[in-house]
Structures are given as structure tokens and as C-alpha cells.
Design brief:
Helix content is 65%, strand content 5%. It is mainly α. A 3-stranded mixed beta sheet has the order 1-2-3. A two-stranded antiparallel sheet has the order 4-5.
Length: 480
């Protein structure tokens, strides 16, 4: 890419391709980076004057930290570390906060103590709390001691709350004013700031003790007579506020429901101690959705797609073991009916259809239930109603698709009894899938477990074994 070429700042895929093209032009493919035995830092120094490297630096410097994070996540490890060395040091903290946990670990491993300390010292207390688990203990202790008393107290508070609470997501940068002052005084006060905190759409109106009295929108501040008092214009009804121990998922849903940009976080005495912002809510929803997808596949944590083989093996082996057990059970179910399959070979050709459609139906049900649970729409007391609904759906689907497959088996093998067995097995397996699709996530909720974790593995194993048993059992009873 020529230095004066235009790149759409929002097209992160195009930016990634530009970086990949520049790496290829500089002959910095993954194999060569691994083969030369040089560290990323040394390699960067050697190639600093190359046109491709200078262009890449310019491109990276112009990108938003989130886009740089995306590019780093999409590159193999060797190229990732090389590109990481090209990023300006003062932006390291912002980018480390944007990358996934797995990729962040790979980047931090390449940084020495002084680099990590310099990065940590550029962060606010709430940001440092996010990064703290990945920092070496000695580095964190050194940075903590360099903070003033207020920042230390904020950092302790941010790290004291569980991961899925509002306290773990809240920020401490906010603007608060008193209700007995004029808008003119507020405007003079705001002019003292170099910049307002990000996502400031309203000011928090507090009393002398810091208690929340109301909210003053920037629109009201700018469009009213400067001589009017804050108390006249503030909104004090139906204020959406949170406590630090509130569930983060429920708070994120509130942001979506009420189109919030920011909201105050108050303690037990209703004193404002921080604020929750829309970017934190969106990030939480995105991470939660990504984790739910991983959980359904039985993955315990986010995995760097370019991670080492052993790291990936450790992340995947647990539910693969469960899947192996369910596969063995399914194979033994088939083994019980070996004679039936030998007598009627058509059974071997048709039984995967019953199991496969049952598994797909079960995954549809379990996905709907897990989504409803995640959105707070379903509780365990709704079990009976959900079962009735999903079994009714399965019954109607079973009648229709069972009939279609029964006619197909009849036409294919010219056997009415085989068609009837196929139709009956299809209906029964869909009913089994519907029941399991409701009971598996609801049971996990009852026992305070993640309803999505391994759900697809469990439902597939159950519908495979159940489908084989139902179909082969009916065939043994009525065809042989």
C-alpha cells in the first residue's frame, strides 16, 4: 500500500489484508519468522528502514486500538508478535484491553518488567483492574504502590467485585454537580476539564454527602438559561441506577431496554461511587455471547486460534471425553441389534436419518431455551409450561416429517411396515429431543450451573443413542 492510499477506517477486514500483504512483501511469513530464530523485537530493528515496515507502522498508528487488536488476533503467533513490536508504546495499554484474554497472554509474555510497568501506569483504576490478573505479581505490586490513596482505593474496590457484577464493569471517571448552583457555574466548572469523560451524556446531581439527587442531561445544560438552577432542570423520577453487586447481565439488558449511554452506580447509602457506560455494557454482552457459543461446544474458555497445540488440547479434551462416552453408548445400542441389522440391511441405511434429525431438533430447542434463560425470560418455575409447548411442537413436526420419511422408506424399499416404523421412530425421537432440550438447561440452572456448557454435546449424544434404540427396537418388534 502506498503511503497516500486511502483505507476505510471502518473496514477492519481490508486493514487486515493490507497488513498481511505488507508482511508478505517483506517476506515475513510465519515459517520464515520461526526459522530465523530471531526475536520479534530484534527482527523489527533489523527491518526498521524497509518501505513495507514504515508503511505498516503508519497504517497501525492510524488505526483505532480495537482494529489493531482485531488484526493481532487474526495473525499467527510469529507475525502477531512482529506487528506488536511496531505498535507505539504509548498505545500498548489501550490495545491490551481490547484483545481477547488468550491473545493478551501471548503479548504480555514478550514484554519485560519495565514495559509492563509503563503500560500499567497509563491506565485508569478500572482499566488496571481488568489487566491485573494477567500481570506478573511483582509488576502489579510496584504499580499499585505508585498510585495515590484515592486510586489505590478505587483499584481495590474494582478488584473486590465478582467478574459478573456491575462493580467489575463500572468506571470511576464521572462529573457530579450540586443542585443549588446555576447552569452558568456548571459551565464554568466543565471548562476546567481538558475533555469530558467518555460517554458523558448527563451529569450526576448529588448532595453534600455525595448522595444521588438526580440527573442533568447535557441537552438541558446547553439549551436553558444559564441563570437557572440545576435543581429546576434535573430529572429525579425513574432514575436507572445500579449497585456494584448487581448482576452485570441484568444491567446490560437495562442499557439495551432503555437506550442508556451512562448510568450512576450507587452504594448502600445511595452515594454515587462510579458509573456504568454503554461501551462496557456492549463489551459484556459481546463477550457473554461469544462464551455461550463456546460453552455449547464444550469449550471451557476462549481459545486463541493460533495458540500452541497443547493449550488447545487442554481446552477441548474434557467434553471430547464426554462425547466419546456418548458415542460408545450409541455404538453399544447398535450392537444390541446386530442380528436385526444383518436380517434387514435397510435399517443400517435409515437409522442415521432418525438420529440426525432428532439431534438437529434437540439443538433447536436447547438453543431457544438457553437464549431465553440468558435474557432473563425463563425461570425454573416455567418448566411445565415449556415442556408442554416444546412437546406439542415436536408432536406436530413428528407427524409431518415422520410421514414424509415413512413415505420415503416405503417408496425406497417397497415396504409399508418399514415406512410405518420409520414414521413412528421419527416422531418418538423428536419427542425425546424436545423433552431433553428443555430439561438439560433447566436442570443445570436448578443446580446453579451454566445452562449452555456442553449442551450440544449432551443433546446430540442423547438423541443419537435414543434414536438408534427407538428405531432398531421398533424394527425388531414389528419387522422381524
Amino acid at each position: 500500500m502506498a503511503p497516500d492510499d486511502k483505507v476505510n477506517p471502518d473496514d477492519v477486514q481490508l486493514q487486515l489484508r493490507e497488513v498481511e500483504d505488507l508482511l508478505r512483501a517483506a517476506r515475513l511469513d510465519e515459517e520464515s519468522l520461526r526459522a530465523d530464530g530471531l526475536g520479534a523485537a530484534q527482527r523489527t530493528v533489523e527491518l526498521a528502514d524497509r518501505a513495507e515496515i514504515l508503511t505498516m507502522r503508519q497504517l497501525l498508528d492510524a488505526l483505532h486500538p480495537a482494529n489493531v487488536a482485531f488484526i493481532l488476533e487474526a495473525l499467527p503467533l510469529g507475525q502477531r508478535l512482529f506487528v506488536w513490536e511496531l505498535v507505539k508504546a504509548e498505545r500498548d495499554g489501550e490495545i491490551l484491553l481490547e484483545v481477547s484474554d488468550a491473545v493478551r497472554e501471548s503479548l504480555i509474555e514478550t514484554m519485560d518488567r519495565q514495559e509492563l510497568k509503563a503500560v500499567a501506569e497509563t491506565l485508569e483504576a478500572d482499566e488496571l483492574a481488568d489487566l491485573a490478573p494477567d500481570l506478573p505479581r511483582a509488576v502489579f505490586d510496584e504499580v499499585f504502590q505508585s498510585l495515590d490513596a484515592e486510586e489505590q482505593a478505587q483499584l481495590r474496590a474494582a478488584m473486590s467485585y465478582p467478574e459478573d457484577t456491575v462493580g467489575a464493569l463500572m468506571r470511576f471517571d464521572m462529573v457530579s454537580v450540586r443542585e443549588d448552583i446555576t447552569l452558568e457555574v456548571v459551565l464554568r466548572y466543565l471548562r476546567r476539564f481538558e475533555a469530558l469523560p467518555d460517554h458523558t451524556d448527563q451529569l450526576f446531581v448529588v448532595d453534600r454527602a455525595g448522595g444521588l439527587r438526580g440527573l442533568l442531561s447535557l441537552e438541558s445544560l446547553l439549551t436553558n438559561d444559564p441563570e437557572r438552577n440545576v435543581g429546576e432542570l434535573m430529572s429525579s423520577d425513574a432514575i436507572v441506577s445500579f449497585e456494584p453487586i448487581d448482576d452485570a447481565h441484568a444491567a446490560a439488558q437495562a442499557f439495551e431496554r432503555y437506550d442508556l449511554v451512562s448510568a450512576p452506580v450507587v452504594d448502600g447509602s445511595h452515594r454515587v461511587i462510579g458509573r456504568l457506560t454503554v461501551d462496557a455494557a456492549v463489551d459484556y454482552i459481546r463477550e457473554e455471547s461469544a462464551q455461550e457459543i463456546l460453552n455449547q461446544a464444550g469449550l471451557r474458555e476462549e481459545e486463541d486460534v493460533f495458540a500452541g497445540v497443547w493449550d488447545s488440547v487442554r481446552n477441548r479434551w474434557g467434553w471430547l471425553a464426554v462425547n466419546m462416552v456418548t458415542a460408545i453408548v450409541a455404538s453399544r445400542v447398535i450392537g444390541l441389534f446386530e442380528q436385526a441389522i444383518e436380517s434387514l440391511v435397510a435399517l443400517a441405511a435409515l437409522m442415521p436419518i432418525v438420529a440426525g434429525i432428532g439431534g438437529n431438533s434437540g439443538n433447536q430447542t436447547i438453543t431457544m431455551i438457553v437464549r431465553a434463560i440468558a435474557m432473563g425470560q425463563v425461570e425454573t418455575k416455567a418448566l411445565a409450561r415449556l415442556l408442554r409447548k416444546e412437546i406439542s411442537v415436536a408432536l406436530l413436526n413428528g407427524l409431518f416429517w415422520g410421514s414424509v420419511l415413512g413415505l420415503f422408506a416405503w417408496w425406497l424399499y417397497d415396504s409399508v411396515p418399514l415406512g410405518l416404523v420409520m414414521a413412528a421412530a421419527m416422531m418418538l425421537n423428536l419427542l425425546l429431543a424436545a423433552g431433553a432440550g428443555v430439561l438439560i438447561p433447566m436442570a443445570r440452572i436448578y443446580f446453579r450451573r451454566d445452562p449452555a456448557l456442553g449442551s450440544s454435546v449432551l443433546i446430540t449424544g442423547l438423541t443419537d443413542s435414543g434414536g438408534f434404540f427407538i428405531f432398531l427396537g421398533l424394527a425388531t418388534l414389528f419387522l422381524l
